[in-house]
Amino acid sequence: MDIRHVAVVDPATEQVHHDRRIVLNGDRIAAITADTLEPLAPDDLDGAGCYAIPGLIDCHVHVTSVTADEWADTGMAPSYVTAHALRELRAMLERGFTTVRDAGGADTGLVDALDEGVVTGPRLFVCGRALSQTGGHADLRPRGRYHVDDHPAVPGIGRIADGVDTLRTVVRELVRSGVSFIKLMLSGGISSPTDRIDGLQYSDEEIRAAVDEANRAGVYCAGHAYTPEAVARAIRLGVRTIEHGNLIGPAEAALIAEHGAYYVPTLVTYTVLAREGPAFGLPPASVAKVAAVSDRGLAALGHAYRAGAQIAFGTDLLGQMRHHQSTEFALRARVQPGWAVLRSATTTGAALLRADGQFGVLAEGARADIVLTRHDPAAHVELLAEPDTEIAAVLARGRPVVRR
Ligand code: ZN
Ligand code: ZN
């Protein structure tokens, strides 16, 4: 199957090549050539009038989140949570996301099921459970609860691990299970009931131990952090990706750029949490925390962009709010030019995943994850926020999975 007469968009060079033929071979792109007058074969996809962009990459999702109440999710049967995850993975493909990085909750069982074709969905990169200190961002226990149930079958975004030795063991366990990165909760957050947004979580020694274990195993650490202090400390201690970072200023943005780290803003989740969170189970204590970070996200993105930091696309939506995933494009378009937004969701995402040349690019040898849009996506990147009308087709692993 080939895609015929399509305009091929290259976010890396900011060029559009018109009337191309994308030749597919299994789940790879075999060649991209100038097209000819040769009639279309019955299984060819007519791309005339459309633009082909690399399949989109979202570097911060939670596929196993069922509701906005993360504590309630931990009481659900794992099979029920998995059923919801499969439905959401399929929905992500419909929005053009052919690769997603789960920032806590999904395990390698889902990765294997997707790779084996047991279920249809994006390529999935996982960290297993995000790691949190007691009373930190993944400690979801209400104040009166003391028991910790860290059985691996209990659903949830994270788990508690305190102390250098325990962290080393837990990171080794996660690596053994096949994760591609380690997620650390390094400041307070919205959904945790007993911490402050501006709290610094984990000691320097604990962070160093996790980073050391991860690096020696060939994986990297991602850090959830909001405040300038939390972000700067994470970067200095070797954390490779900063999740959220809503409160950073120019100095932290420069530090991220200087260290070659990645910044993963998740703007849409705050917009949607403020509006819909309570209706979908966000507890009142968490609602109060949303305001503290939501207004600053766009400014932080501006600082990172001007500092030349590598910025990846992230959304961080929970439960029933995840259908707003594509709205992130419209929010970023307020701050960054179209090409920059497009690179966040393609080339930069791939580099973050250490998969440059595989994903995030349309070129010979790359994976055949391709989205066809109805308008020039660099000139109208905000239209990607409306995938139902803007996205004409999605190919994942070389197969057409969406056609509109
Ligand atoms: Zn987070
Ligand atoms: Zn998250």
Primary descriptors:
alpha/beta, 5-stranded parallel beta sheet, globular, Urease, subunit C, domain 1, binds zinc ion, TIM Barrel, 2 domains, 404 residues, 8-stranded mixed beta sheet
Give a structural overview:
Helices cover 32% and strands 22% of the residues. The protein has 2 domains: 2-54 and 359-403, Urease, subunit C, domain 1 (Roll); 56-352, TIM Barrel (Alpha-Beta Barrel), CATH 3.20.20.140. It is α/β, with parallel strands linked by helices. The strands form 4 sheets. Strands 1, 2, 3, 4, 5, 16, 17 and 18 form an 8-stranded mixed beta sheet that branches. Strands 11-12-13-14-15 form a 5-stranded parallel beta sheet. Helix 6 (228-236) packs parallel to helix 7 and helix 7 (250-258) crosses helix 10. Strand 13, helix 7 (250-258) and strand 14 (262-264) form a beta-alpha-beta unit. The mean pLDDT is 96. It starts with a strand and ends with a strand. The structure holds zinc ion (ZN) (2 copies). One zinc ion binds at residues 60, 62, 103-104, 316.
Structural class: alpha/beta
Uncertain runs are: none
Cα separation of the termini: 18 Å
Per DSSP, what share of the residues sits in E-state strands of 2 or more residues? Answer: 15-25%
- Mean pLDDT reading: 96
If classified by CATH, what would the architecture of the largest domain be? Alpha-Beta Barrel
Question: What is the percent of helical residues?
Answer: 25-40%
CATH topology of the largest domain: TIM Barrel
Radius of gyration, Cα only, in angstroms? 21 Å
List the domain count as a whole number.
2
Total number of helical segments?
14
Number of strands: 18
Bound molecules: zinc ion
CATH superfamily heading of the largest domain: Metal-dependent hydrolases
Largest sheet: 8 strands, mixed
CATH top level class name of the largest domain: Alpha Beta
> What sort of overall outline do the alpha carbons produce when their principal axes are compared?
globular
